[in-house]
């Protein structure tokens, strides 16, 4: 086993996000932290900041052009809090251009295609020629994420995917977020458990998992970014 394989094997057995992030940054040069500005990414940014290594990652927000205004305001607040630039990656076409090409409100007719155009393709551009990216996936977010490993191979994008919070629970994440008085999306205090594009995000009811409010009424809880 070569040295990087050894390091990845050690990394894959780690469950503490601080250890994971510190070790990952010893292995990979400037991994991308891809964020939707959800609470997971905010905790990761805070942990990186505490390690003194927040400048060692490229932080990229996938701005679909359909985000609620609360998310836009959070982008500014997070840049101020951590003293960093959170780059904004946009789709190839604006919402109006998409409407001219694909017809109105594509998300109501073909959300797979809408996500492919506005999320998956732009993120593939960000991840091209990169060795690793960091995501905020947690095992307890939904059944589709229940087997998330700390380190995995992202077949769709052809690079290593690191999930430092894979083993943290929702409660543990919120404990960190609140104890550190970190900024977060105010919609999370209004019944939303996960905030994405405004047309495809709704509040969740008691007993529903965190992703249940995304694409309400459809048999999908993922946009395709995570394979
Ligand atoms: S979440 Fe909805 S609006 Fe956003 S890209 Fe996907 S289908 Fe389109």
Any key phrases for this structure?
single chain, 227 residues, alpha/beta, Rossmann fold, six-stranded mixed β-sheet, 8 helices, globular, binds iron/sulfur cluster
Quick overview of this protein structure:
The chain is an alpha/beta fold and 227 residues long. It is built from eight helices and six strands, in the order ααβαβαβαααβββα. It has one domain (3-184): 3-Layer(aba) Sandwich (Rossmann fold).
List the helices and strands and how they pair.
Elements: H1 3-12, H2 17-27, E1 32-35, H3 39-50, E2 58-62, H4 69-82, E3 87-89, H5 95-102, H6 106-109, H7 111-127, E4 132-134, E5 151-154, E6 159-162, H8 170-179
Parallel strand pairs: 1-2, 1-4, 2-3, 4-6
Antiparallel strand pairs: 5-6
Iron/sulfur cluster is lined by residues 64, 66, 107, 111, 114-115, 118-119, 196-197, 199-200, 223.
* Rg measurement, Å: 17 Å
Return the domain count. 1
User: Can you summarize the main beta sheet?
Assistant: 6 strands, mixed
Query: Which CATH class?
Result: Alpha Beta
Shape designation? globular
The computed structural class is alpha/beta
Mean pLDDT: 91
List ligands, each type once.
Answer: iron/sulfur cluster
Residue runs with pLDDT of under 50 for 5 or more positions: none
In the CATH hierarchy, the architecture is: 3-Layer(aba) Sandwich
Strand order of the largest sheet: 3-2-1-4-6-5
Q: So, the CATH homologous superfamily?
A: HUPs
Beta-strand percent range: 5-15%
Number of helices: 8
- Which fold name corresponds to the CATH topology? Rossmann fold
How far the N terminus sits from the C terminus, by CA atoms, comes to 27 Å
Helix content: 25-40%
In total, the number of strands is 6
How would you spell out the order of helices and strands?
HHEHEHEHHHEEEH
């Amino acid at each position: 086993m070569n040295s990087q394989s050894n390091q990845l094997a050690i990394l894959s057995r780690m469950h503490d996000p601080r250890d994971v992030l510190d070790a990952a940054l010893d292995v990979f040069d400037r991994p991308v932290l891809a964020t939707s500005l959800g609470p997971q990414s905010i905790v990761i940014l805070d942990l990186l900041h505490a390690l003194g290594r927040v400048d060692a990652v490229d932080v990229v927000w996938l701005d679909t052009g359909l985000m609620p205004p609360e998310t836009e305001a959070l982008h500014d607040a997070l840049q101020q809090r951590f003293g960093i630039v959170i780059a904004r990656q946009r789709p190839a076409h604006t919402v109006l251009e998409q409407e001219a090409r694909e017809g109105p409100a594509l998300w109501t007719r073909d959300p797979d295609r809408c996500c492919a155009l506005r999320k998956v393709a732009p993120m593939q551009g960000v991840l091209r020629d990169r060795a690793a990216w960091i995501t905020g996936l947690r095992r307890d977010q939904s059944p589709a994420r229940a087997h998330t490993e700390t380190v995995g191979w992202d077949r769709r994008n052809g690079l290593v995917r690191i999930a430092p919070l894979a083993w943290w629970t929702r409660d543990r994440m919120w404990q960190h977020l609140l104890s550190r008085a970190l900024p977060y999306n105010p919609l999370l205090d209004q019944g939303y458990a996960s905030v994405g594009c405004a047309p495809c995000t709704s509040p969740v009811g008691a007993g529903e998992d965190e992703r249940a409010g995304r694409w309400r009424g459809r048999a999908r809880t993922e946009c395709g970014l995570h394979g």
